[in-house]
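Design a sequence for this backbone.
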């Protein structure tokens, strides 16, 4: 069934929308994390049911940025086997510290500078913010040197905001045509960050735009490139994203609890990121 706008738009808001994203309580125990994971999964199931989708078609990616090793290990005990991290150096440290957990996967979901591509190639199993051919070339070079491959999502700026990374929608087709030159990159789909707005209809339009673009590009995409994946939706808007076709939702605060400080505190030398992110 094609995803469609829900009745919640009649009021301009919906459960899980930005306007209702409360201060999530801190999850400090195994029981807290089990309860939060179950609640998020229930919301995923409900969103899928509203539009006739199979809940199994949506992958929950817990976002562990700024969380310490002890909290991540608790989430492992609660059943998590993959985590998303925005900053590659932070993710690499955690990968090293938790090398004893052999069955886990790390996904880098934030903007990546070309000079840090070597780190991603060393440990990540997924990268969700590919937005330049220079970066694609650097990743491919380092991956091939290590005999590895990497699942990637192409990041698209569907909101049109200058503060957000990602390719303009009109540039994605040509970008995809160039990617077969980098065989160590396995394209799995497209990723976007929605507009930060209390107006559900405006948030929803970002997700509709990514799904529509994906559908348009499927016919012309080079052989071997998979565009099935749509990574979109975070703690404040993942239900809307699922209603519009998300196959991956990146959820942090609804699982681990609200971060006490803004991103600029943890990474003072990086551009500030939207407070609602993940």
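Sequence:
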């Amino acid at each position: 069934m094609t995803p469609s706008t829900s009745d919640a738009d009649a009021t301009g808001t919906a459960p899980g929308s930005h306007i209702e994203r409360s201060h999530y309580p801190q999850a400090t125990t195994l029981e807290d994390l089990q309860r939060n994971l179950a609640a998020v999964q229930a919301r995923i199931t409900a969103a899928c049911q509203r539009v006739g989708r199979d809940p199994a078609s949506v992958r929950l990616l817990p976002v562990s940025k700024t969380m310490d090793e002890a909290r991540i290990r608790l989430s492992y005990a609660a059943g998590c086997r993959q985590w998303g991290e925005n900053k590659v150096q932070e993710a690499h440290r955690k990968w090293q510290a938790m090398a004893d957990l052999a069955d886990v996967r790390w996904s880098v979901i934030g903007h990546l500078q070309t000079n840090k591509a070597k780190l991603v190639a060393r440990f990540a199993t997924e990268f969700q913010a590919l937005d330049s051919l220079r970066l694609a070339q650097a990743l491919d070079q380092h991956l091939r040197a290590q005999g590895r491959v990497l699942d990637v999502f192409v990041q698209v700026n569907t909101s049109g905001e200058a503060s957000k990374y990602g390719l303009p929608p009109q540039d994605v087709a040509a970008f995809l045509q160039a990617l077969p030159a980098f065989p160590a990159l396995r394209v799995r789909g497209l990723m976007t960050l929605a507009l930060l707005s209390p107006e559900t209809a405006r948030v929803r339009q970002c997700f509709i735009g990514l799904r529509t673009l994906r559908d348009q590009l499927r016919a012309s995409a080079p052989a071997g490139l998979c565009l099935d994946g749509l990574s979109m939706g975070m703690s404040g808007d993942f239900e809307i994203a699922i209603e519009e076709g998300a196959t991956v939702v990146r959820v942090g605060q609804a699982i681990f609890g609200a971060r006490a400080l803004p991103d600029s505190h943890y990474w003072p030398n990086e551009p500030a990121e939207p407070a609602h992110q993940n």
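The beta strands are 59-62, 82-85, 105-108, 126-130, 150-155, 185-191, 229-231, 248-251.
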